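Sat 14:20. Reprocessing the chain from the morning session after the first attempt stalled halfway. Input below, unchanged.
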Amino acid sequence: MVSALVKRAYASWVPIIGRRPRPMDEDYAETFAAAEFEAWVKTDGDLIRGLLILQPEPDHLWVDNVAVDPVAAGTGIATELLDHAAKRAIELDLPETWLFTHEKMQVNREIYLHLGWTQFVPEDPIGDNFVYFRKPVGEAGA
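Finished this time. Tokens:
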């Protein structure tokens, strides 16, 4: 079940940021049904090990959530999920992918930088506690 995966993926962040991260309280049945979102899961047999939720915007593909089951951490699933986001951006003819993470999620920030994402400040940030990243995806067909 997707909600259970997300809760496992984000549980360790609760004491670090002092509250439940937003993805832990999302209604995933509603998200999956919403036309503006796309979802992709990475499975291992019958088990969901990773989740990617995308939202196309006019000038980028928004990575709304990337979650990896803690038992699968370090296996490359996050990279695979983010690579899928880049491929989808190319299919949609969008030049880059964007995401944010909580400022206290230092491990995530380091992973994104290691994977070639660049930190930036968007024109209209949604809050003070987030660090935004973007990554160009190249041209369609490249």
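Residues 80 and 119 are 20 Å apart (CA to CA).
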